[in-house]
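Journal club side-thread
Mid-discussion, someone asked how the predicted structure for our own chain would compare to the paper's figures. Pasting it here so we can look after the session.
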Amino acid sequence: ITHNQTIAMSPSWSPDGRYVAYSQYSYHIKKKMRNVDLFVYDFKTDRHNLLHSSKGTSSTLSFYPNMKAGVFRLSPNNGSSDLYKINLQDGTKEALTNGPRGAANYD
């Protein structure tokens, strides 16, 4: 489903089978930086939609069963990794973990 000359990884199917989320290396010309962004491909419309982009790596989206939200991992190139909930309708994000060990901070 991807036809460009970059690496796509961490695919995740939506519960209804209409979408697949994936991470892909992207180069941002204006920011002069390369990072891993999170995309969602819609099989019905044949469109790739950017879901999240920030400095670092956005990956491994897991869809909520109701398809209104999902959880993904953000690693901002500082050695940490945190989990975020993202609203799939409006793109708003909420940090679920926050700390020096981030997503690895469990007992």
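Post-session note: The mean pLDDT is 81.
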